[in-house]
Design a protein that fits this description.
Layout lengths: L1 H14 L5 H17 L21 H10 L17 H17 L5 H16 L4 E3 L7 H18 L5 H18 L13 H4 L5 E3 L2 E5 L5 H12 L3 E6 L1 H13 L7 E4 H12 L4 H22 L7 E3 L1
Parallel strand pairs: 1-6, 3-4, 4-5
Antiparallel strand pairs: 2-3
Length: 310
């Protein structure tokens, strides 16, 4: 039950963009109302008379909920109370809770913990820094971003920052290189098996796989690509290149899978997009970062995955 409940909440958070302080405050307060009032909830009862605000949505109420989970930082000084979209978010969320209750898969304690985890992510959601230092080569610039993602991954267990950054950087690079619409994008947590995808990206007869840790199962996926007449490309970390090549050798498909290191994959394209002119490299990098951030907005719920150029 928890798996289905979690996936439903994940989809709702992504679709409704529940990532900032206002919407998160609404989710917490409405969940509290559901605990006290029971289900099904009537959204009309959760709107204050005259002022047209979500009932009980304010700093004190939100902080009381957070305090139960040992969070003392202020989420929102007004609890999102003055946001024009708060009532709409409340109504959509009430509808979801009522549907989950009708399906008998609703656990409000679990739901509250789900949103508390999102609050913790929000407090750790400062964007990663991309520093364009003329004294560094472009591979070092990309490596620094991945190092930041790895450090954040250690501080937030269970969140695969490195893999997500790699996937969407590769996706942004492909969009900038071959044009938007040429490849389909997905949430990082969506596996190939869930969607019957040939890889993370499919362009023509090329199936592209992006991973921080090559595995035997991924090499088997590459073998399946070959059996279907596709050309597999595997993009990984520098330390993963040798691992991927050895796994391919063990599977007797060495020489049939192209393995690229992510820093090289991105950096070389930056030179090409900038036509190897020094004044164009920064522009090319900004284009990729801009597209990358658009993909994070569209497909992920954690704003801490975004990039800020310095």
């Amino acid at each position: 039950m928890e798996g289905e409940l979690n996936s439903t909440l994940e989809a709702f958070a992504r679709e409704k963009r529940i990532v900032s302080k206002g919407p998160l405050s609404v989710m917490l307060v409405v969940t509290q109302h559901a605990k006290k009032m029971g289900l099904p909830l009537d959204p009309a009862r959760l709107v204050t008379e005259g002022s047209g605000q979500v009932l009980g949505l304010g700093q004190s109420a939100v902080q009381a909920i957070l305090k139960r989970h040992d969070i003392t930082r202020i989420l929102a000084s007004e609890g999102g109370r003055t946001s024009r979209g708060s009532i709409g978010k409340m109504q959509e969320y009430v509808s979801l809770l009522n549907q989950l209750a009708a399906r008998n898969i609703l656990d409000l304690d679990y739901v509250e913990l789900f949103w508390i985890d999102r609050v913790r992510l929000y407090f750790n959601s400062k964007p990663l820094k991309l520093r364009l230092d003329p004294s560094q080569n472009l591979r070092a610039v990309i490596r620094d971003v991945l190092d930041q993602a790895a450090a954040r991954q250690k501080s937030v267990p269970g969140v695969q920052y490195v893999g997500a950054v790699m996937q969407h950087l590769a996706g942004a690079k492909l969009d900038c290189a071959v044009g938007r619409g040429a490849v389909a994008h997905n949430c990082f947590s969506t596996s190939d098996a869930q969607t019957s995808r040939a890889g993370d990206f499919l362009i023509g007869d090329v199936a592209i796989h992006v991973t921080s840790s090559p595995s035997e199962s991924l090499i088997q996926k590459c073998r399946e690509n070959l059996d279907c007449g596709l050309r597999p490309i595997l993009i990984t970390m520098q330390r993963g290149v040798a691992v991927a090549e050895e796994l391919a050798r063990n599977a007797s498909i060495e020489g049939r899978v192209d393995v690229f290191e992510i820093e090289q994959f991105i950096a070389l394209n930056l030179y090409e997009l900038g036509k190897f002119a020094p004044e164009n490299r920064g522009v090319a990098l900004k284009d990729i970062v801009y597209r990358y951030n658009e993909l994070i907005d569209e497909w992920e719920t954690d704003p801490g995955l975004k990039l800020e150029m310095k």
